[in-house]
Each structure stands twice: as structure tokens, then as C-alpha cells.
Task: structure prediction
Amino acid sequence: MNMNLLNSKKEKQIDWMITLLPLIIIVILCVLFIFKPTQSNEILSQVRYFLGDTFGIYYLIIGLGVFLISIFIASSKYGNIVLGNKNEKPKYSFFAWGSMMFTAGLAADILFYSFSEWILYATDPHIAELGSIQDWSSVYPIFHWSLIPWGFYLVLAVAFGFMLHVRKKERQKYSEACRPILGKHTDGLLGRLIDLLAVFALLAGTATTFSLATPLMTNIINELFHLQLNPIIITISILIVTCFIYTYSLLHGFKGISFLAKSCIYLFFALLAYVLFFGGETQYIIETGFSALGRMIQNFFGLATYTDAQRTTSFPQNWTIFYWAYWMVWCVAAPFFIGNISKGRTVRQTIFGGYVFGVGSTIISFIILGNYSLGLQVNGVADFISIYQQTGSLYQVIIEIIRTLPLAPLVLILLLVTMITFYATSFDSIALIASCYSYHKLEENESPHKFIQLMWCILLILLPIALLFSDSS
Result:
């Protein structure tokens, strides 16, 4: 009787509008992407151009402003605030906390771009304006993936952590964080619209992320087994397997999420260590990485405020503004999760700890994986730029890069497994946060019903599959 009463109470707490409306719209979008791929791709391209070209300056202002605010908050008296009770200790060790935070904030994209992003910049006219490929093509990847992106995450993470663990709010939604500004409107139409936009942004961001790097996983499988199957079939199979893994992890709660995150970090650093010590470019990687990091720090404010007002190359519109918009979309889920797992840590520990683990791991990834292939390029051992210009496929370029490593098939297997665990660890945390959105209220230690979690796990995979047909990633 008591169990039935509890289940009935939880059902009444479910926010059916936030739960069902996104489901219906995602199904409609999936149908459009599958049956009208060309038209869908054109519309998405126009929307991206409009936002980047017209509102780009505001993205730059917000990005730099949020980073500066994060440093101010952590360095001020507010940094002493504990996200929880006054003398509460952190719930997770620094390694477990950092692993969950890092993998929730960055999916397998980091591996895809760490290997190849310098090539995109090397072929951009703006790099020629600045100087040589050696000096600048490895600077921008570090800039676009480090301080400002993690600033977005960490400022919101401490705000959400304060809301959840200090104020003990039971409405785990974006609108609740806006209550000091919205007041009574939080519970009205405006609050509902904010929550709906947050859910749609979450779904759109995760779909783009999934559909971006999964073709690399398909290429790896083809390279390993020499299959002649349709790439879309292989990619969908990978997505389904990944969905099964993160669903299994999520249904086992934070214990499952933590285990998967730590496993992902071990695999990730094993891959980095192998490339660094056995790729034959150790000295070049370290020295070029050190120089790139120094150049990024030295020119940080110039890079963060460059607008290309005359649109000579449109570099900031194509890259910096695109990335800031990308990270803002991910801010719907990642900061909520980081704030949730930061219980017992001070605001200062959360922000500076996030920069140390999150930014540090990100920079190491780009320095090692990116500068390995850059070293082969500038030393004349390989010509990855020509391969990219001939094939137009970064996926094929990455395969060619890995072929230059000793025991390349084993590296491909390690990369494939690491990418799957990265996706799984990112999306189990996202599915958890989305599940919380499905409730009007959740008590501090209360978890969403497993059926709701399962529904969101499946919903997160539908749009990426549809995007494969529109080729709009």
C-alpha cells in the first residue's frame, strides 16, 4: 500500500508537458530529417549563419565576461561558500569528481578534434595573416577548448550547486535558477518557456555531438575489419550499442556513472601516453605544446575579442563564435551535473578544481594528439593537409595519422573503445539531468523513476540517428 502510494505521488510530480512535448517534436523532426534531408540541411545552415554573423559580438562578450566572473567569484569571499552544509565534506574524491565532470562536459568530440583540428586552421586564410602554421595552428585548438568553455560550465555549476545543496530547492530546472531575476514569473508561462528551450537546446546539442564524431568510429571499424557495409548502418549500430551502455550505467545510479567515468579517464590517458612516448615525436610535442600554450596565454584577450569586422576571412564567425554557441548549448546539462556532484566542495574548489582537471586534461589532449601529426607535417614525414584537401574527410585523415603509429590496429581499437566510453559517460549524465527536468519537484536525494530515465536515454539517441540522413552535422 505504501509503495503504491509512493509511486502514485511520484507520477503526480511528473511534468508531463516538459516530458511529452519534446518527445513529440523530436519525433516530427526525425521524420523531416529522414524524408526531407536536403531541405532540412539548408534550413539548419541558414539558421547557423544568421546567429553567427548577426549576434556574434554578443557571444564574444558573454564568453569573456563569464570567464572573468568565474575568476572573481573564486577569488572573492564567495569562494568560501560550501555547496552543502557548513562543515560537509566532498561526496567524491578529487579523481572521481574530476572524472565525472570532465567526461560529462566533453564527449568523444575531444578525441576527434584533438587529432585533426589544427588541419582546419592550417588551411584557413586567417592563419596566413597571423604567421606560420607552426606558430598558430596549434594555438587555436587550445583556446577554443579551454578557459572560456570551462568558464561557462563552472560559473553555472556553482550557481546550480548553490541552488541544490544550499538553498535545497526541489525544482531541478533552469527556470528555478532564474528565480532571483524572474520572481513570481518563474512558476508561470515564462518559466515554462525557459525550461522547454533548455530541453530543446539539450537535445539539439547532444544530437550534433553524437552525429559529428560517430562517422570516425565507423571508419575505424571499416579499417579494422575491411567491411563493405553501408556506413549509416554501422554508425546506427554504434549509436545503439553506446545507448545500451549509458542506459545500463545510468540505471545503476551514480555508482555506475562514476565507474564508467573513471574507466574512460584511464583509457583516455593510456591513449595519450602511448602517442607521446611511442609515436617518435616526444620532443616536438612537448616543445611545440609549451610554445602554443604560452602564445595562447599571451594573446588571450586579443583572441577572445577578435571580430573581423570587415569579414576578410570570417574566422571568428566560423570558429570562435560557433564554439561559444556550442558550449552554451551544452551548458543546459553539464553544469547541472557538475553542480550536483560538487556537494561538499567550496565554490573556490569547484571553480579552480574544474579548471585544473577539466582545462588541464583538455589542453594535454590537444597538445599530444594534435602536435604529433603536426610534427609529421612540418618535418615532411607526411602531408595530412593534402590528404584532407583531396578527400575532404577528416575521418580519413585521422585514420592516416594513426597508421603512422606503431601497432596501429591496437591504437585504433583503443581509440574506438575510448570514444564509446566518452559518449556513454557524457550521455548518462545528460540523460540523468533530462530526467530531473521531467519532474515538478525532486527532493535532494531523490532520483527520477527508472522508466523516465529509460525514456530519456532512448530519446537522446533518436535525433542523432535522424541527423545521419540529413548529413547536417
Summary: Residues 10-470 form a domain with the Amino acid/polyamine transporter I fold (CATH 1.20.1740). The radius of gyration is 22 Å. The longest helix spans residues 189-225.
